[in-house]
Amino acid sequence: MTKLIDGKQVANDLKVQIASSVKKLIALGITPGIAVILVGDDPASQIYVRNKQRAAEKLGIDSEVIHLPATTSEEKVLAKIAALNANPAIDAILVQSPMPAQIDENRIQSAIVPEKDVDGFHPQNVGALFNNAQDYYPMANTPRGIMTLLNEYMPNLVGKKALVIGRSILVGRPMMAMLNNADATVTLAHRHTTNLEQLIADADVIVVAVGKPHFLKMSDVKADAVVIDVGINRLADGTLVGDVLDDMPDSEQLLTPVPGGVGPMTIATLMQTTVELARQHSTI
Ligand SMILES: Nc1nc(=O)c2c([nH]1)NC[C@@H]1CN(c3ccc(C(=O)N[C@@H](CCC(=O)O)C(=O)O)cc3)C=[N+]21
Ligand SMILES: [Mg+2]
Fold it and tell me: Which residue numbers delimit the Tetrahydrofolate dehydrogenase/cyclohydrolase NAD(P)-binding domain (predicted)?
C-alpha cells in the first residue's frame, strides 16, 4: 500500500494541546462555547454534528446543537443566529452545510458576526484570508486542518506545485488561498478544466474534493507526491470511500485515508478555532 498519513494521530495530538488550553482558560473563568445549527435530517450531517459535539464534550468545551426541521424558514434561522450573536456564552457559531433549498447559505454565513464565525465563511474573514492578513481571523477548518497535516508530512511548501481539485466554499477556495499564503504555486481545477491529467502528473501536492469515488488514481500522480483525499462517499453497501483509488502497492507516495484522514482533522481544527475565538473574546 501507499504510505498512509495518520490523520487520526495528528488530530489526537492536536486535541491534547487543545485540552490543555481549555483547562487553562477554565481556570481563568472562561469556558469556550460552540453552537451548531443543523437544519433538516440529512443522515451524514447528523453524524458530523454528533462527532463535533462529542469532541467538544471530551475537551471541556460547552456545545449546544440547535436542530431545526427541514422546512424552517430563512428568517427563523437568521433569528437564531441573532440570538447566538448576542449570547456571551457562545464564542463560535457553525451552521451545518448543506442547508435546505429555501435558505440562502451566503445570507446565513454573512449574518454570523465575524468574531464568532468559526467556519471562516463570513466575507470579512474570507477577505482576511485572501489578503493573508497578519492579525487573527478564523479560517475554514477542513483546509486549515489539511495545512496542519501538510506541516507534518510536507513542511516546506515554498515553490511546490499544489493542485486543488474542486472549488467549493467549504474546501477548494479557502484551500487555494492557504496554499498560496504558504508560497506554493497553486492551480485550482474544476469541472471545466481541460488539462487535468497533465496537472495531476506534474503536482507535488494534490487536494481532491470532488465527491466522486475513484476520481483520482495514485498511479496517475508523481512518485513523491502527497495526496489529500477530502472525499467522503458512502457506497451502496455502506462502506465509506474517498475520491482516491490507491492502486499503487509499495509506492512511496503519501495519501490520507478515508475514514481517518481529513475528517478527524476537520473536527480537531474546529475545536482549535473555537478555543482561539474564546481567547479573543476574553482579551487575555
Ligand atoms: N458549516 C459547515 N462546516 C463544516 O466544517 C462542515 C459542514 N458545514 N458540512 C459538511 C462538512 C463535512 N465535515 C466533516 C466533519 C467530520 C467528518 C468526520 O468525522 N469524518 C470521519 C468519518 C465520519 C463517518 O463515519 O461518516 C472520518 O473521515 O474519519 C467528516 C466531514 C464538516 N463539514
Ligand atoms: Mg464562555
Answer: 141-281
Q: What is the mean pLDDT of residues 186-209?
A: 98
Reduced to 3 states (helix: H, G, I; strand: E, B; else coil), residue 207 is strand
The set of cell numbers assigned to 244 is 482516491
Tell me, yes or no, if 109 is annotated catalytic: no
Write down all domains in the chain, each with its CATH number in brackets. Answer: 28-115 (3.40.50.10860), 141-263 (3.40.50.720)
CA 175 to chain centre: 9
Does the active-site annotation cover 96? yes
What pLDDT, in 10s, does the model give residues 127-170? 999 999 999 999 999 999 999 999 999 999 999 999 999 999 99
Helix locations, the chain, DSSP H: 7-27, 43-59, 74-86, 105-111, 123-131, 141-153, 172-181, 196-202, 262-282
Please tell me the distance from the alpha carbon of residue 92 to that of residue 109, in angstroms, as a whole number.
Answer: 13
CA atoms within 13 A on the CB side of 192: 1
Catalytic residue among 6, 15, 52, 117: 52
Q: Has residue 2 got a pLDDT over 90? A: no
Which of 77, 235, 240, 266 maximizes ligand 1 atoms within 8 Å of its Cβ, making it the mutation to test the pocket? 266
Cα–Cα distance list, 230 to 65, 74, 160, 170, 173 (Å): 25, 29, 20, 11, 13
pTM of the predicted model as reported, rounded to 2 decimal places: 0.97
